[in-house]
Amino acid sequence: MELTTEPVLQAEDVSVELGGLPVLRGVSLTVHSGETVALLGGNGSGKSTLVRTLLGLTPLRRGHVGLFGADLAAFTQWQRVGYVPQRSTINLTRAKVSEIVGSGRLGHRPPFLPPTREDRRAVSEALDVVGLTDRAGAEMQHLSGGQQQRVLIARALATRPELLVLDEPTAGVDLEHQRILADVLAELLRRGMAILVVLHEIGPLAPLVDRAIVLREGRVVHDGDLPRATSELHDHRRIEHGGHEYGAEDETAGRPGPPVAGPLDIRNGTPS
Amino acid sequence: MINILSYPFMQRALLAALLTGLLAPAIGGYIVQRRLSLLGDGLGHVAIAGVGLALLTRQAPIPVAVVVCVAGAVLVEVLRQRGKATGDVGLAILFYGGLAAGVLMSAFAGGGTGALSQYLFGSLTAVTAGDLVVIGVLAVVVLVPTIGLAPQLFAVSADEDFARVLGLPTRLYNIIVVILAAITVTLSMRTVGLLLVSALMVVPVAAAQNLVPGFYAALGTAMGIGVLVSVGGAAGSFYLDAAPGALIVVFAIAVFAISWPVSAALAKRRTAPMIVAEQADHPQIPPPHVLAGSHPHHHGDPDCDHLAVTHGDHVDYVHEGHRHAAHHDHYDEH
């Protein structure tokens, strides 16, 4: 994979609190153009909060986020960013596929004006990339989970982004459709797009990933090659009464590869 | 019908009903999409405070109520955006506080609750020529953004986070939606009434969603249903000598009740087995034999959700826009 040095997305020392509780603590990461970065971690590790923070949907407590070299607060070129939220969080059952994908063009369309030929072309290209051209007139509720996920990807592609951010695109999608999804993402990478993808299970997307960032309890515990034993990084053992996800015994077992983010404080940093 | 139209007050009432029927479902489409179906009801209560204030100050009720209701709506939306109205309690206090204030002010004005009732359930005789001018002007004010900003308002109502990442001013659009809803609620008080207006915002939209696919088509259909039930309800209530609001809402619910089996029939037609026509036989052209790629799951299994269609003497499974047919140990592309 050919990397240019310009980072499309950069976070330094990002800390976020939700409802007074720290969710992210001192997270730094970089995504370069043409690169696929997977954001891994168990439930509650803060990965969805992190992508929401990187896109300005959740306020920063401390730190700095830069998009395409501009500070997040001053960033205006949103048509360079495509966002695919978690499918389960949105309420789009009655709308048609073409209407949903068409809303992805609104960053380019001035209010009160009808879509231009360019807008329509971008929508049909986006549907073509995800292989749903023939379902453009279907209602969202008549599609399978994997197809709905691809509709949301097409909606993000309609803006013709340079950075695509996907939040758990494989959640609730069967293996066959995950493979189709992997093919779609491979095609986007071939076109030079940078991709940041939140994953719970790495699954069929593994061959596409250039770099993995693993979060645990709001901190980066790994930033580098895809960990060999991914499953160990986010297994679901629970100790009897704490409600924390990680038992004492997997503190050391779950970290293949040298952690880049400095000393880990899982051992004594568990919030109580 | 002709003799109804000979009364000037009925001409005004029917015209007001037509505009209300057009507006309420139009803004209701976004309210339903945002899952705030009962917002209209709450704003109706706030508008009652405006009516009470107008009675007390001896002003024309519609302009005063519009101002009070818009102010209440913006307050609710700003509190929601700041995350301070997370519980229903704050909204309940505002809405029922509005109702209570309206009743009290009406009592101080000497009219009691009786003076309010024509605003709660509508009144055919109450629409003055001045009201009609105000309703007409404000109807244009509401309809232009409701239709002109339809893609933006749809995107913000359906998926606010995505709209923000598009760079849309989502807070502004959300405030526009509640302001338009507040104006619509207030304008409706002469025809359907403040206590029943929420039904005219929600029920035609629900009926339209049963009848036609897609957001924009449903929005247009809902506006048509709204006009039909409003004008029909206003005309019918002339003969029944009843408050028009009740009959309008009964008609709207009747349309919804009819739409239900239609929706079920349409859904059944969508899932009914399809039959693919066999190509006419050309003996000189052999049928193509194209193998499907690697195929981890077995069509026809209980968890297979691919549509089965009859193709000649066998069954094909519709598979991402093409068809698979079992052939020995693999699937062919048909």
List the helices and strands and how they pair.
The complex is a heterodimer of chains A (272) and B (334).
Chain A (H helix, E strand, L loop, with lengths): L6 E12 L2 E12 L3 E5 L6 H8 L7 E6 L2 E2 L9 E4 L12 H6 L14 H13 L15 H13 L5 E5 L7 H16 L3 E6 L11 E6 L2 E6 L5 H4 L16 H4 L12 H4 L3
Parallel strand pairs in A: 3-8, 3-9, 6-7, 7-8
Antiparallel strand pairs in A: 1-2, 1-4, 4-5, 9-10
Helix pairs in contact in A: 3-4
Chain B lengths: L1 H4 L2 H26 L5 H19 L3 H21 L6 H21 L3 H9 L8 H20 L1 H9 L1 H6 L4 H18 L9 H15 L3 H26 L3 H28 L2 E3 L13 E2 L16 E4 L2 E6 L2 E6 L2 E4 L1
Parallel strand pairs in B: 1-3
Antiparallel strand pairs in B: 2-6, 3-4, 4-5, 5-6
Read across the widest sheet of chain A, the strand sequence of neighbours is: 6-7-8-3-9-10
Query: How much is the radius of gyration of chain A in Å?
Result: 19 Å
Number of strands of chain B: 6
Oligomer: heterodimer
Mean pLDDT of chain B: 86
Going by CATH, the architecture of the largest domain in chain B would be Orthogonal Bundle
Counting DSSP E segments of at least 2 residues, the number of strands of chain A comes to 10
| Integer tally of domains of chain A | 1
Helix and strand succession of chain A? EEEHEEEHHHEHEEEHHH
Question: Could you give me the name of the CATH homologous superfamily of the largest domain in chain B?
Answer: ABC transporter involved in vitamin B12 uptake, BtuC
For the record, what CATH class of chain A applies?
Alpha Beta
Order of helices and strands of chain B: HHHHHHHHHHHHHEEEEEE
